[in-house]
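Memo to structure team: turn this sequence into structure tokens by end of day. - J.P.
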Amino acid sequence: MTEDLSPPATPPTHSPVPFRLNLQDAASKKEDQQLSSLKHSFHLLTPLQKQYFLFDIINGCDNTQLTFLNNLIAPRLKVDFLKELPPEIALHVLSYIKQPSTLAKATSVSKYWHALIRDDSLWKSLCKQHAYIEQDLGDQFCYRDYFKRKYSIANAWHQGGKVTTVDGGFSQGLVTSLQFDEQFTVVGCDNHRIEVFDTNTGNKIRTLEGHVGGVWALQFKGGDQEDPERVLLSGGCDR
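Reply from structure team:
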């Protein structure tokens, strides 16, 4: 009788390989529990205790971990507080700035600040604070340009500027008219003459003659892209 070596018709009801625990999943669950417990303990600390705790934690970090913290924290600290406010409240906050130079510097903070500071209501408030206006001048009025002009004039009067005096430039004549630009200062006199000076140095350039009466009006014409030729027009008591 031969021995039957064929496999059984059905597989065994149990695996011969013993059951193994997934140690990685177990370790991960344990770490999650520890982190959860640590976070819970941290929230129970007082503010001062939290600072001490963070101080010790940070001192134990290497450069890689500190770089990670910096990349995580830095964006959260860069919060535009004006952008978080309604525009009306943000403009009210800016209205407490009295120096226009400070506002001018603030426009370079961001595009939002630049647009916010250009709001005409802010410059209207500054006009009233500096007593440049006493009442509203209308919705179409540009308070920003008006303030810049008035402030520039007032600042020039308070701080003064370079004064150039001219001696011996007039031939016994009384000044009756004046016109100047960046290059020439032209003076009309009652002695029929026009005296021309260098605006930057104050030196006399020439005397223009031809009128038979006093020179009472002077006006430059041209000198721009549309009319390159620079002309001086004069008027007087000629007959």
